[in-house]
Sequence to fold (94 residues):
Amino acid sequence: MRLNGVDDRLERHQYPTTSEEIIAAHGNATVELANGSERLGDVLERFGDQTFENPEDVFTTLRAGVCHRGVGRRFYSDRDPTTDAEEGPSPVSF
Fold:
């Protein structure tokens, strides 16, 4: 996810602030995703009314709230366990 300069604007925003205030000021800005883009306001609206103490709170919410186009290949995990028919890596204990 790329914030396309939105991160600078969010860092200059006055905190604490609400999601409503951020949407009013920056809601039409777009974030670039792996497969497309999405409006900042659309992402924040998924979480309802919130209060943010600092820009990092907003960034965390944005990372958690982007649609499926922001996560790369859907339903893919390289951390799935091997099946009984597969030979996987040997477990290592630390």
Summary: The first strand starts at residue 17 and ends at 18. The two ends are 34 Å apart (CA to CA).
